[in-house]
Amino acid sequence: MKERVLIIEDEMAMVRLLELELSYEGYETTIASDGPDGVDKALSESFDFILLDLNLPGINGIEVCKRIRSAKQTPIIMITARDTVSDRVRGLDTGADDYVPKPFAIEELLARMRSVQRRLQTKETGDMLSAKDLTLSVASHRVSRAGQDIELSQREFELLHCLLQHKNRLMHREALLNLVWGYSYEGETNVVDVYIRYVRMKVDEGFGEKLIHTVRGSGYILRD
Question: Beta-carbon neighbour count of residue 122 at 10 Å?
Answer without folding.
Answer: 17
